[in-house]
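Weekly sync notes, structure subgroup
Attendees: PM, AL, DS (notes)

Item 1: joint prediction request from the bench team. They want all four components modeled as one assembly rather than separately. Inputs as received:
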Amino acid sequence: MTLNTETEQKIIASAEKLFYQKGKAGCSMQDIADDAGINRTLLNYYYRSKDQLFEAVFRQAMGSFVPNLAAMLKSDMPFQDYVQDLVETVIDTMLESPQIPIFVLQELSSNPARMPQIMKEMGVDPSLAIEKMTEEGRVPEAMGMDPRQVILNLMSLCIFPFAARAVVSEVLYDGDQEVFLEAMEERKKLIPQIVKQIMK
Amino acid sequence: MTLNTETEQKIIASAEKLFYQKGKAGCSMQDIADDAGINRTLLNYYYRSKDQLFEAVFRQAMGSFVPNLAAMLKSDMPFQDYVQDLVETVIDTMLESPQIPIFVLQELSSNPARMPQIMKEMGVDPSLAIEKMTEEGRVPEAMGMDPRQVILNLMSLCIFPFAARAVVSEVLYDGDQEVFLEAMEERKKLIPQIVKQIMK
DNA sequence: GTCTATATTGTGATAGAC
DNA sequence: GTCTATCACAATATAGAC
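Output from the run, pasted for the record:
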């Protein structure tokens, strides 16, 4: 998926920005063209339809974090060794593109039937992952917790603050985005500590 | 906000359903009217505009969980006493209307400027809440964590699994919604245990 | 590849009959 | 309160000139 022409790059950049912000139905082809500073019909020339342009943006967004998840689910290494790396990777991804989680979750929520197909395309076999995860010692017993709950907790702690950024930064950090970002940086150390504490 | 006529109830029910699922821009007035089985112009008769209909639905959604948050932030009681109740209340709310979190987060994410005003209307004073929270002993020291991080962790653990339900149920529970719901029930006990463990 | 012009359909909203 | 008819406009998409 290399973007050849300069125009094509401008289109994808603007489409990403506006789709992330307003959703698929929330912005028009005209909006995207205006943001990119090009003629509207060029969008159709390059991507044929709004649906296909959205598809390109959505798949790129999925591709930015599914591999992380997949790697963790598929790996044979002990769980703890992954936590620090995973947390850092995921949080860094969110810091770079803070709007990805809400964008992806909204699309999947209004179209949940897409999930199985996407998982398949991205090389994640859910039932295989679960099997591996529940193998003895793969994800260590923590307070008698199901291993899936451990994974879910980890993901919740990493992703939710970004999905809820508007609320969180307003209610907890009085609207100060700098302080919010510092807090997110802090969580890179904090979350692994929590996991370690729970594992004890 | 009592809904008088039968028609009005049908409208709100359908608007809720479709706005939750597809977002404000993702469904038309015609869609809502069709779902409610009534004439499209009645929507304008009762709510004047799409904006005002959306506002009614959005405010109702906010009202279903902001009071819980506000109560916790404002209360003088020790933090631990609230955790069990709060977790149960929040998870029960999510179980009843699983689409609320993603709906609210999406709207606030594309329109973050609304947050301060909404907080004010709902009687939550952020800076006051923070002040109270950081008072000695209000939210207990946990692993040297900032009290705001504790709150954020708690909310993340409760809400994220529902916001990400499509992904979670597919990847971790192989698409089985029954098993997913059981896991969410289990979290009512599990999350307070985690909090307790971290507080030690 | 990029533009203008245009076809076609959908949308929110209102006026006015019943 | 509920309907039909209608308005003004915005949307996606394509055809065809350059």
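Discussion: Residues 28-30, 40-41, 43-44, 48-50 of chain B lie near DNA strand C (CB under 10 Å from a C1').
Action: AL to compare against the crosslinking data before next sync.
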